[in-house]
């Protein structure tokens, strides 16, 4: 297996930010999930999880070099577990059966939370980060694509699907 390329690392970290936006206690939930999955040797605390996520070149503080394949697999497993846990919320967002006004409010709330996290943790001088911080009308398709990716990452085969999408060079 090859290590994730730059775009894959960016997307993986961005998906983890979406998880944190969906779950107010996302950071703590990820640590709990790592213990449940037996990944506590990779992520024994917040700092170690943060160090792995800092391989994303869009972050304010970045680490140079490649993320080990075992580390990226651990992060993918963690993300898929969190997507499975948050699937009811993800399903509500993607459902066409929800009242449109309620659904729109949920998307706006998710967008606000994500933008707060992006502004706090990412390098705002980067073009990709600036695009994420644009008004919701301009970022809505990107946000929907991220939530849809989380939905596909849940369940059996989720890690394989997510890995394939992270290795895909197209945006």
Structural notes for this entry:
The model has no long low-confidence stretch (mean pLDDT 92). Helix 2 (26-36) crosses helix 4 (69-85) and helix 8 (136-153) packs across helix 9. The radius of gyration is 15 Å and the shape is globular. It starts with 5 loop residues before the first helix and ends with a helix. The chain has nine helices and no strands. It is an all-alpha fold.
The radius of gyration over CA amounts to: 15 Å
Helix count, per DSSP?
9
Write the element-wise H/E pattern from the N-terminal end onward: HHHHHHHHH
Structural class: mainly alpha
Helix content: 55-70%
Main β-sheet description: none
Beta content: under 5%
Give the tally of β-strands. 0
Give the terminus-to-terminus CA distance.
21 Å
Give the overall shape.
globular
Low-confidence stretches: none
Mean pLDDT across all residues, rounded? 92
Structure summarized in a few sentences:
By secondary structure, this protein is mostly helical. Helices cover 68% and strands 0% of the residues.
Please describe the topology of this protein:
Layout: H1 6-22, H2 26-36, H3 46-53, H4 69-85, H5 87-94, H6 100-121, H7 127-132, H8 136-153, H9 158-167
Helix pairs in contact: 1-4, 1-6, 1-8, 2-4, 4-9, 5-8, 8-9
Summary keywords:
mainly alpha
